[in-house]
Amino acid sequence: MKRRLWFEDTITLRLVTTVALAAATTIGFLQLFFMFGGYWAAPNIEQTGLLQEVATVSRVISAAPQFDRVKLSNAASTERLTFEWFETGSNTAKALETANYKPSEVQSGEQLISSFIGNTARRLDAFSIENPVSAAEGIRVDKRKYPNATFLALQLQDGSWLLCSALVRSWGFYARERLLLELTILVSWIIAVSLIASRQLSHPIEKLAKDVGRYGAKPYTAPIPETGPRQLRLVVRTINAMQAQIQKFIADRTTMLAAISHDLRTPLTRIRLRGEFIEDPEQQAKLFRDVDEMQAMIDGALSFFRDDAISENITTFDLPGILHTIVNDFADQNISINYIGPVRATCQGRPFALKRVFTNLVENAIKYATPPTIELICTKERYIVSIRDKGPGIPESAIERIFEPYFRVDKSRNRETGGVGLGLTSALSIVQAHGGSIDVCNHFEGGLEVRVSLLNQNSIFLSTSNNFK
């Protein structure tokens, strides 16, 4: 049991695994670097022992008699490092003494070998095969055969010259360059490993946040899958339990309120029957008007509590087709509504529920203002449906409360001018079930504009404008 838990997916295990894999990968890359990195990966010149060899040979030749120096130079030469001695006054010695050297090469050469040779030489010049002095008389190095040859010319205390020629470069960067390279590789690799590790830890959290956000917009969505590290699975399990409790609470509330609204129909029917026995026609009409208004309130409540927008299946539908249907329905009532937009645009959602939303908004515009204009704009990420009238708008103080149940800007609640105040509340519920929201604002050119924004995985975004009182 403990062994199984040890290998369980946790944040700690992911972090340890990521670091271990990063370390193993680093070692592997270093091995490949040393195998195929060329002279970049080679040890620096101080680690090769080349400087010590040059210093030793130069001290021996400096201490030897002049007639033995040529033999000693030839004896000390190898396939990769050769030594040549030139007596004072020779053409080669004059060429070495008067040649033009790069200050940077001379300075780097002095910094590298001066501590090794001590006071053996009174002058030191370093140069490459590209320097013209490398072709001087007596210097026998083939430029074509050794294109990377490097030279170090030492003028001994008696004025003669000792030329050290490294035919093949066997060292890598110098200490300072190598340090910069190592720091660059190290910093780059730390950044890469940090990004990978953070991604391993942040990706499940981002997914959880996205799922929770989708649940917040759609309370009736399926439970969040319990995936990821153990700690996140515990969080998901808690959220799913909370989601189930919220769904049960909503279902119980809906059932209770729907039952109350349904049961109110029976006493209303009895009141209406008893009203038939009222002899005063005026009082009877007032009673019937009150009963009809209460009946309308109950019907609106039942329609709202049934929650048809949730029970309807999500399908693919033509949004302009729905808008054309609404325009045609009002045209049959001799109400002219202009539509501007594409002929066809396919999206996903609950078409009948969304049609009720748009119809309700258009009806409110007609009741309280003027027949609106519907405009559909399709972008790559969303659909924008704009329904705007030319009415007086509504007070700014009422905009924040416009979607509250039973709230109406028209306080008279006259049946001649509207319903019971649940239309916009029901519309908001339907839109939120699609993962969106509704915003109302007074247009700066006059009239009221209502935007219904539906954001989901299918990138549906709808905007409508209307007038309400």
Automatic annotation (TrEMBL):
Domain Histidine kinase, chain residue ranges per copy: 259-458
Q: Which domain of life is it from?
A: Bacteria
| TM spans (from-to) | 20-42
Locations listed in the record: Cell inner membrane
Q: Which GO terms describe its molecular function?
A: ATP binding; phosphorelay sensor kinase activity
Q: Where is the HAMP domain?
A: 199-251
- Enumerate the catalysed reactions: ATP + protein L-histidine = ADP + protein N-phospho-L-histidine
Membrane topology, as annotated:
Multi-pass membrane protein
Q: Name one GO cellular component term.
A: plasma membrane
Q: What EC number(s) has UniProt assigned to this enzyme?
A: 2.7.13.3
Keyword Cell wall biogenesis/degradation in the entry? The reply is no
Give the keywords, sorted: ATP-binding, Cell inner membrane, Cell membrane, Kinase, Membrane, Nucleotide-binding, Phosphoprotein, Transferase, Transmembrane, Transmembrane helix, Two-component regulatory system
Note the PANTHER family from the entry: SENSOR HISTIDINE KINASE ENVZ, SENSOR PROTEIN CREC
Q: What is this protein called?
A: histidine kinase
Native species: Gluconobacter cerinus
